[in-house]
Each structure stands twice: as structure tokens, then as C-alpha cells.
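[Automated response] Your request has been received and processed.

Submitted sequence:
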Amino acid sequence: MTLEVSVKKADENPVLELMGRIVDADVKKFQRRIEQLYKKKHSQIVVDVSCASFLDSHGLGTIVYYHTLMQKEKRELIILNANPDHNSYLNRLFELTNLDKVLNIVTHL
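Generated structure:
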């Protein structure tokens, strides 16, 4: 399944929803959208990966990159993962890379 990217609002902050596989060329779609939101100087950006089935190293790197940029500016990147299955691919990925201890990962807004 190719990546679908959409933007919604939660309060005044954007929610970037990612659905499908975040790989290769599709990562560029994700990068363009998050860059557009980043430039608007929102205090928070939420990246919803609840419906994402796979995230490659480029996608993971994009998340870490924007997390670091926003943290330096006293802004916040929030990862929303509402998937209740602790053994799901993304839950395991964040755990195995220790990013669950670095990123702000929430199960609901």
C-alpha cells in the first residue's frame, strides 16, 4: 500500500496522518508535508502513525530530524500511535531503537 498523507487540525495544532508504508520515494511526500508544517512555526506538530504499517530508516530519520529541530526551538513533535497492539511493527521499532524513550509518543490526543 502506498503512503497516503493528510493534514487535520487538533485544537490549533496540525495532525499529519500517515497511512500505509513509509518507504523510499513515499518518504519524500512525508518530508514535504512536515516541512510545510514546520515552516508555519506551530508550537506542536502531531504525526499520526496509527495507520502506518511500515516505516523505513529514511522515514524514521525524518521523524528524528524534525524532533531535534523543534526541540531546539522549544517546540514539540508528538508521535501519535493509537495501535493498541504492543507487538505491532511500529511499537516494536520505537522500542528496539530506544526512540520510545526519546520521542514523545502518545496513544491518544
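Summary generated for your ticket: The two ends are 26 Å apart (CA to CA). The chain has a mean pLDDT of 94.
If you did not submit this request, please reply to this message.
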